[in-house]
Design a protein that fits this description.
The complex is a heterotrimer of chains A (546), B (223) and C (104).
Chain A: H1 23-27, H2 32-60, H3 71-107, H4 115-138, H5 151-155, H6 160-187, H7 200-232, H8 245-279, H9 286-299, H10 315-343, H11 352-375, H12 377-383, H13 387-417, H14 423-449, H15 464-494
Chain B: H1 2-11, H2 22-57, H3 59-64, H4 71-97, H5 100-130, E1 133-134, E2 138-139, H6 147-183, H7 193-217
Antiparallel strand pairs in B: 1-2
Helix pairs in contact in B: 2-6, 2-7, 4-5, 4-7, 5-6, 6-7
Chain C: H1 12-32, H2 40-60, H3 68-94
Helix pairs in contact in C: 1-2
Classes of the chains: A mainly alpha (546), B mainly alpha (223), C mainly alpha (104).
Chain lengths: 546, 223, 104
């Protein structure tokens, strides 16, 4: 019943979104921008599924007694919350959505190096998600996201195999994304886009890709060995039949500790872009920030044993892992200092992305510093497996990474969708997220330090006040995540049309129209400026439009 | 799409639209392939690490398995795989020179040698089954005190050689694709990237076996 | 204006020599395994394997003459494998050590 006659489009208005509307053009696309949109939709869906389990966890923890669900069901809740959020939201989020969309444009390329592999990576993600969600609806899995044997290999009666298979497949999606980024950043840069002119978002995604390709295969083989042990009942991890469960933890954390840098590094890249654009200043110490990303990626591989301080790991291994964990804090601190120095005497504007950037810097600092508490051998013995650990990694992952993701999504939303989001609502949502987040997780530091263990559905009555605060905060946080979902969808149709460079920011992505045309640049651009050239007028000589 | 044909005129048929020059395309494929091989190294190193740890923990039990491993068969299979690597590199060389018949010939030889390797491997697996050396399904070890730890050895043996054999099977499929393309004369001195890339993969699989052979077959042979 | 990708063509002789060397090394490693060298058997076997790997990588995979980037990528793979081995073994090797006298 379409009564409106479609406006004839001029060549100027053809972009990656309206060039073709068919289903096939989306599901078989090799355009990095469309694949980013596919990822955006699927990752958002997974985020809300994972959020549903978080809601159920917080509901159960309102009261000290296990009155909402049984202990077994609760085990499944936190396991599925963890697996979905980590493997299907946090790890792919910024690289697969913002990285996919922006990296080729930022380096001045028409697409990623291997467009069909990029599409394959999305399909692998979907297949992995189907297996995992299939396990969830069939009855769930209760091993914790870490799949520790011998529970996972011998005793658990839940859908361990299907879930592990889902994670295994999603791992290959992550590997292929990393591989694509590395080849692209090495070989597809436009003339003049030297390594020292790369936007820091590209640098941090490069570091992320290193971890993805070097770490993820080890997770794959670990899960494979676990599955084989579960099928054949041969003791490679199960100590009762000759295996060594700590070997599993070594192999698992060899990937899974660097994996937290897969989650946070791209967020750091986003913050470097936001801080410079909204302070109107060059980044302070470009080289330090760039190499800090690489340093985090490398040193991050040397610290995994700090997850195993209270296992049978040798004391001496505990000591060197503890020392190296302190070392990895140095490059992270360099970044925080440099962002702060960048803002110093900058002309700061308080747009929504910048609010998220402020949130990130503060909350990441808290999350990072409490990480140092946990890296300290003696203190860690006291707080291992308490809510202190839970609060720590949520400060880094949710307070850090999700803030950066939302900030980046708002910053580049005009470029992605061609529309502006409603600024007032967005600022309101940013404040709601910040308040809700702190109310949810700050009490968990206290309750954890007082000794409340994680992963139990019931707890001692004296912890109830702090848990009620936490659950109340979670409801506010949930609301804070729903508001952007609504107004972003609203803006697709009703939002103000965005210009090519609504923020007056520097970077190749702001030289192309919003939304960008099908192959980004009609002619390969030539880069003649430093990254973040906010200190002098920026006039890119790039042919815009087609 | 109109855009595509237009680009084909500019770049020639083998250059994809997002590359500037054929050199850039080849270099990108090369770096992509090597990056992929690095992921493969890490994939196998998980198993090698497990192997090394259990071998150092259960040294005697691991040594006791050697009497069930046929060194001669293993050595012959190693030689077969090395020969296939040689024929593969000759196929790559022929491709670089654009000699269609030579590419086809060497690809067929490589595939045949690969199949011989897999056949011998299947024979060995069968033998292990007959001798009750398949942990979890059919395992009985004569020296009872080593039974549990020898099971770990054979578990790792099947995991490592199994993963290796799976890579060989995938390689055979890739070679078959190459063969069809070569038969149709797709590879010229100007464009032969797939032969080069799959060659790298094939050699990598060979290297894995070069390590598996001494680690699995050559422990505790001394009388 | 479109420079064609150029490859260096290695003479067949080089490939044949590498092939022969690999076959000989296979025999050597099988033969050495029969001699009791104690702890050194594994060292010799692994050294020969590394030599064979280097031959395949350098000549068959054309690492020799490859770009610095390719060498770097290849080296990174080996380096990270070394990290996995070194830090994991550090744990297993030091598990039985007792705390030093007077530390606490």
């Amino acid at each position: 019943m379409s009564t409106t006659v479609e406006r004839p489009r001029t060549q100027q208005e053809l972009n990656y979104l309206n060039i073709d509307y068919s289903w096939k053009s989306w599901l078989l696309t090799t355009d990095h921008k469309r694949i980013a949109i596919l990822y955006l939709v699927s990752i958002t869906a997974m985020f809300f599924v994972g959020g549903l389990f978080a809601t159920l966890i917080r509901l159960e923890l309102l009261t000290p007694r296990g009155d909402l669900v049984s202990d077994d069901t609760y085990n499944k809740f936190f396991t599925m919350h963890g697996i979905i959020m980590i493997f299907f939201f946090l790890i792919p989020s910024i690289p697969a959505v913002l990285g996919n969309f922006l990296i080729p444009i930022m380096v001045g390329a028409k697409d990623l190096a291997f467009p069909r592999i990029n599409l394959l990576s999305w399909y692998l993600y979907i297949v992995g998600a189907i297996f995992t969600l299939g396990a969830v609806v069939s009855g769930g899995v209760d091993t914790g996201w870490t799949f520790y044997p011998p529970f996972s290999s011998t005793y658990s009666n839940t859908y361990v195999m299907a879930t592990a298979l889902g994670v295994f497949i999603a791992g290959f999606s992550s590997i292929l994304t990393g591989l694509n980024f590395i080849a692209t950043i090495h070989k597809m840069r436009a003339p003049g886009m030297t390594w020292s002119r790369l936007p820091l978002f590209v640098w941090s995604n490069y570091a992320t890709s290193l971890i993805q390709i070097l770490g993820t295969p080890v997770l794959a083989i670990t899960l494979l060995l676990l599955a084989a042990e579960r099928i054949a009942h041969v003791g490679i991890f199960d100590p009762s039949i000759g295996g060594d469960p700590i070997l599993f933890q070594h192999l698992f954390w060899f990937y899974s500790h660097p994996a937290v840098y897969i989650m946070i590094l791209p967020g750091m890249g986003v913050i470097s872009e936001l801080v410079t654009a909204f302070s109107r200043k060059r980044i302070f110490g470009y080289g330090f920030v760039a190499f800090a990303s690489i340093a985090i990626a490398v040193i991050g591989f040397l610290v995994w044993g700090h997850h195993m301080f209270v296992t049978g790991q040798s004391l001496y291994a505990g000591m060197y892992f503890s020392l190296l964990s302190f070392a990895v804090a140095v490059p992270s601190a360099i970044k925080v200092f440099n962002w702060t120095a960048t803002m110093y005497r900058g002309s700061i504007s308080w747009d929504t992305p910048m609010l998220y950037a402020f949130g990130f810097i503060g909350l990441f600092t808290i999350g990072g510093l409490t990480g140092l508490f946990l890296a300290t051998l003696g203190l860690d013995v006291h707080v291992t497996d308490t809510y202190f650990v839970v609060a720590h990694f949520h400060y880094v992952m949710v307070g850090g990474m999700v803030m950066a993701y939302l900030g980046g999504l708002h910053f580049w939303w005009p470029k992605i969708s061609g529309r502006m989001y409603p600024e007032g609502w967005a600022k309101f949502a940013a404040l709601v997220v910040f308040a809700g987040f702190n109310l949810t997780f700050f009490p968990q530091f206290i309750v954890g330090y007082q000794g409340m263990p994680r992963r139990y559905h019931a707890y001692a009555p004296e912890f109830q006040v702090l848990n009620v605060l936490s659950s109340a905060g979670a409801s506010i946080l949930g609301l804070g995540y729903l508001i952007p979902l609504i107004y972003m969808l609203w803006s697709l149709k009703y939002g103000k049309r965005a210009s090519a460079n609504p923020w007056g920011a520097v970077g190749l992505e702001w030289t192309v129209p919003s939304p960008p045309p099908w192959d980004n640049f009609p002619q390969t651009p030539v880069v003649t400026w430093e990254a973040y050239q906010y200190h002098k007028p920026w006039q890119p000589e790039v042919e815009v439009g087609r | 799409m109109a855009v595509d044909t237009n680009l084909e005129e500019i770049h020639g048929p083998e250059l994809r639209h997002h590359f500037e020059t054929p050199d850039q395309q080849v270099e990108t494929s090369t770096i992509g392939m090597w990056t992929f091989l690095v992921t493969e190294i890490m994939f196998f190193s998980g198993m090698f690490a497990a192997y090394a740890i259990f071998r150092s923990l259960y040294h005697d039990a691991f040594a006791s398995t050697s009497k069930y491993m046929d060194v001669v068969v293993g050595a012959i299979n190693t030689a077969v795989l090395i020969c296939s690597s040689f024929t593969m590199v000759m196929a790559v060389r022929a491709a670089r020179l654009g000699m269609r018949n030579m590419i086809v010939l060497f690809l067929i030889l490589t595939m045949l040698l690969g199949l011989v390797f897999l056949g011998v491997k299947a024979y060995e697996y069968h033998h292990k089954w007959v001798e009750h050396l398949v942990p979890g399904f059919n395992f009985h070890y004569e020296e009872a005190k080593y039974e549990r730890h020898a099971a770990i050895f054979f578990f790792l043996y099947f995991m490592m050689t199994g993963m290796h054999a799976m890579h060989m099977v995938v390689g055979e499929g890739l070679l078959a694709t190459l063969l069809v393309m070569a038969w149709r004369g797709r590879f010229t001195a100007k464009w032969n990237t797939p032969v080069d890339m799959i060659g790298l993969y094939w050699h990598f699989v060979d290297i894995i076996w070069i390590f598996l052979f001494p680690l699995l077959y050559l422990i505790g042979q001394r009388a | 204006m479109n420079p064609e990708p150029h490859h260096h063509i290695t003479p067949v002789r080089t490939y044949v020599l590498v092939w022969i060397a690999l076959i000989i090394l296979t025999f050597v490693t099988t033969w050495v395994a029969e001699i009791d060298l104690g702890e050194w058997n594994i060292v010799v076997a692994m050294t020969i394997a590394v030599v064979k790997m280097s031959l395949v990588a350098a000549f068959f995979m054309h690492i020799k003459g490859a770009s610095a980037l390719t060498k770097l990528v290849c080296g990174a793979g080996l380096f990270w494998m070394a990290i996995l081995f070194a830090l994991t073994f550090g744990d297993y090797r030091s598990r039985a050590w007792l705390p030093l006298e007077g530390w606490w």
